[in-house]
Amino acid sequence: MNIAYYAWVRQKVSCQKETLNEPSILSLHDLILFLQKRGEPWNEIFSDRQSLRFVVNGVLIHDKNHPLSPHDNLSIFPPFTGG
Q1: How far is CA 73 from CA 5, 23, 66, 70, 78, in A?
Q2: Paired residues of 27 in beta bridges
Q3: Chain segment 36-45, per-residue pLDDT in tens
Q4: Percent of the chain residues topping a pLDDT of 90
Q5: In whole angstroms, what is the distance from residue 42 CA to residue 83 CA?
C-alpha cells in the first residue's frame, strides 16, 4: 500500500510517502491502529480523526471500516475546502 502525507501531517511525520507491506491492514481503521502503534507523532495526529481526510485510489473515504488492499494508493490530508 502506498501512502502519501500532506500539509501538517507530512511535517509531523517527516515523510512525504511510504510503502507498507503489512498483511494485517485490511481496513482504514486497521491502518490507523497500525500507525498509532508507532507512538508519537502518530498518536497526536490521530487523536482527532475527524480532523483528517482519507483518499483511497482518488476517492474521499468517510467510513473508517473501508476495506484496504495492498495495491491501494492512500493519501492523508488535514481538512480542506474548495470552491
Answers
A1: 11, 15, 13, 9, 17
A2: 67
A3: 999 999 999 9
A4: 84
A5: 30
Using one digit for the tens of pLDDT, what is the confidence trace for 62-73?
A: 999 999 999 999
- Domains, the chain, ranges and CATH? 2-77 (3.10.20.30)
* Half-sphere exposure of residue 42: CA atoms within 13 angstroms, side-chain side: 10
Question: What does each C-alpha distance from 63 to 16, 39, 53, 60 come to in angstroms?
Answer: 24, 24, 11, 9
Sort 65 into a burial class: Cβ within 10 Å, 0-12 / 13-18 / 19+. exposed
